[in-house]
C-alpha cells in the first residue's frame, strides 16, 4: 500500500469525522430523520400535495403542460400580489440524478427547480391547501421528467415522486420514487439545496450568460435569469427541514393530550398576536408543555436530538469539472443542529414551527369569531389608565407621551397627532406597552372616532387583517384619549379596554381534551399534527361554520420498486448492498441489477463498480463518491468505517475483479464506457 498524500489524508480524516455524526447509536444524539431509516416508498396514508392538486382518479393525473402552464397554475393557487409565489431557479449542471441527461448541451436543456412561497388562495367556505415550503418540483426537459418532493399531512412526511412522459401529446406516468435511494442524498428526508452563493444555479452570472447564449429566443438579458429566487428557495428548503422535528416533538416530546393542548394553546396565541409572541409564563405552558417535554426528553433522547442538514456544500461547475465525494450529495453531512436539552429557546421554536401549519385565513376566522362570540357572552373587560403629557408640539402636530416610563408595570403609549384647524386630525400610535405583556407594540388604527373632548381608537394589524391581541391572546378592544378644554392644553388621559376573549379558546381546548379521551375526535391523539383535524374540532367546539376541505377519496401513486434479482456465488453480495439503488430499470443510477438475468449488465458495469468499491480505501486516488453510499451500508447493517475491513467487502471486490480482468479497460475511470451504454433495453 502506497503512502497517502496530504490531500488524501485530509480527505479521509474529514470523512471519518463526518461519520461520527452519521452514527446513531445509544451514545450519540438521536437523528430526527436519517437516511438509513427511509421508511416505505408509500405509506398508504393520506396524499402528497402533488397528488392533491393533480390526481384525478386511480393513477390518472392531469398535469398542465408545458412547464410554464404548470407554474402558472401553481401561482394561481397562491395569494401573492406584488410577486409570483412560484420561486424558480435554473441548475444546468448540478448534482441530481438527471445531471448528465442533457450532456453535452447542458444549457440548452437546463434543469429548473421551483418552490412555493405565500398564503393559499381561499374563499369564505374553503380551507385551502398550504403550499408554502410543502411542494418542490424539478423539471428536466431532455428526459421529459419531473422530480417532486411534496408534503403528506396525514403521514407527516415528504413524499418523493417521479413523473415520466411529461411532454406534449403524452400521458404522464407518476410513481413513487425509490425512497431509500432518494434519502442517500436527501438525508433529511426533505428538500436539499446548495449553500450560498449558489454557484451552480442561475444566480451565478456566468451560468446566466450561458443560458442567454444557448436560449436567445427565450432570454436576451440577465433580467429574468439572475434573481433572488435561489436565496428564497434555500430558505424555504431550510424551513421545510424543521417540519419533521416539530412533528417528532408533538408526538413523542408531548406524550399526553394535555401537553399537546398546551402546545396548541401557545400556537394559537402566537398566530393571533400576529406572530408577535405567546404567553410562555403561563403555568399551563410551563408545566403541561415545557415540563412534560423536559421529562420525556431525558427518557427518550438522553444524548439529544440531531437535526439533519438541508444544505449541501456549494460547488462552482466552472472551477471543477468532476464532482468530488465531499461535494457530492451522497457525502454524509453533519447535523444542522444538535439539541441537547429542551431549553426555553427550543421550546419556543417548536411553537413557531407548528404555527406554520395554519393559514392566515384560519387565524382571521378564529379572530373574527372570538370577537363575535365575546359580544354575546359576559366576557371580562379589563381597564388600564394613564395620564399623558405634551412633549413637543406646534400648530400642525403634537406628540403625546402617556404613562410612567420609569416603571414597567403601568400602561405606556406614545402618539403622534396631526392637527387640522386646531382639532385632532390623523393620529399614529408610535408605540404601546401593556401591563404584564412583554411586547412593545406598534399597531395600526383600524377605526378612529372623534367626539367632543377626545378620540376613540380601535387598534389592529393591517398587514394580516387581525385585531390587536396580547401574548395571552386577549384583545385590545379600544384606546380612549380624553382632554378637558383642548388637546393643546396638555391635560390628556388615556384609558384602554382589554377583552379577555382567549378564555373561549381555553374552554374549547379543555372540551377537546375531554372529547378525545372519550374517543370523540383525534386531533390531540398520538398522531402527527394535522391542521385539518385540529381546525375541524376547534371550529366545531367554538360553534363556527364548518369549512370545505379537500377529501382524499382517490388512490395515490403506488411504489413500483422491483424485487431484487437472485444471483449465485459471490456476486450475490451485490444484492444486499447495491439493490437499494440499482435494481430498477434506470440509467442513472445504472440498473445493473434489473431484470431476471442481470449478469450481462453487471459484466459491462464491472469496471465502474470496482472503481466505486475501492474509492473508500485510504490509498484510493479516485475522487468521486465511493459505493455503496453510507446510507445503503447502514440499511444493510454495517457502516462506512467497518465496510472496507469486512469479509463481504473483500469477497465482493475479488468477484468483481475477476470480471474486470476479462475486459480490455485501462482502468482510468473517466475513460471507462458508461455503465449500460451498450445494453439493449
Structure, explained:
- The protein has 681 residues and is of the alpha+beta class.
- The chain folds into 3 domains: 6-25 and 562-671, no CATH class; 32-241 and 308-339, no CATH class; 380-500.
- Helices cover 31% and strands 19% of the residues.
- It contains 17 helices and 23 strands.
- The chain has helices spanning 6-22, 49-54, 67-76, 179-185, 205-214, 229-240, 243-253, 257-272, 283-300, 344-355, 360-376, 502-517, 531-542, 574-582, 599-614, 630-635, 647-661, and strands at 30-31, 55-57, 60-61, 86-90, 112-116, 135-140, 145-152, 157-164, 173-176, 193-194, 305-307, 311-312, 337-339, 381-393, 397-402, 412-420, 423-433, 440-441, 444-451, 454-461, 466-467, 475-483, 492-499.
- Strands 14, 15, 16, 17, 18, 19, 20, 21, 22 and 23 form a 10-stranded antiparallel beta sheet that branches. It has a 6-stranded antiparallel beta sheet with strand order 4-5-6-7-8-9, sandwiched between helices. A 3-stranded mixed beta sheet has the order 1-11-13, with no helix packed on it.
- α8 crosses α9, α8 crosses α10 and α15 (599-614) crosses α17 (647-661).
- The radius of gyration is 30 Å and the shape is elongated.
- Mean pLDDT is 87; it is low at 1-24.
